[in-house]
Design a protein that fits this description.
By secondary structure, the chain is of the alpha/beta class. The chain contains 7 helices and 6 strands. It has a 6-stranded parallel β-sheet, sandwiched between helices. Helix 2 packs antiparallel against helix 7.
Amino acid sequence: MTNTGLYFGSFNPIHIGHMAIAGYMMEFTALDELWFVVSPHNPLKKKDTLLNDQYRLDLVTLATEKDERFRVSDIEFRMPRPSFTIDTLTYLEEKNPGRTFYLIMGADGLKSFDKWKNADLLIQKYHRIIYPRHGVSKNYILSQPNVTLVDAPMMEISSSFIRRSIREGKDMRYFLPPEVYNMIRGMHFYE
């Protein structure tokens, strides 16, 4: 069996924090590979600042293409919207026998996990690998069923901070993978 981590997100845009977390997961867990699942729209978030699906997919591909342990998935682009994790996982399991899927998520996502479609089934069926976030206690995380808390460094970088900073004319080159920065600048995204 191949242990496959699924890192869901809008990646609007993907940044060095996302990449650091992905790298940590590959080096410090039992995962064999990590798939970035680019989500068209998170039902729990506003859509007004979301860059075009294909552009976000292209940015994630640029950020990850040099690491053979990473794969980019656009599966949710071809599924009914809004997309739900349980539906995506069911589909991926049918199409990818021989893999054990793990959910990679930030600790802050645990607080709203009960709002996810079929949350009980997700908890029962899929192990969640949790990276720490400020404001979420270790005791709370470890009280949740079917989780592993990793000791990853906390990432204070957010896509909303990057979008806002670009809009304000700030140079964000050191917050983004170089190829991602170049495409964002060249296409005038988020300006």
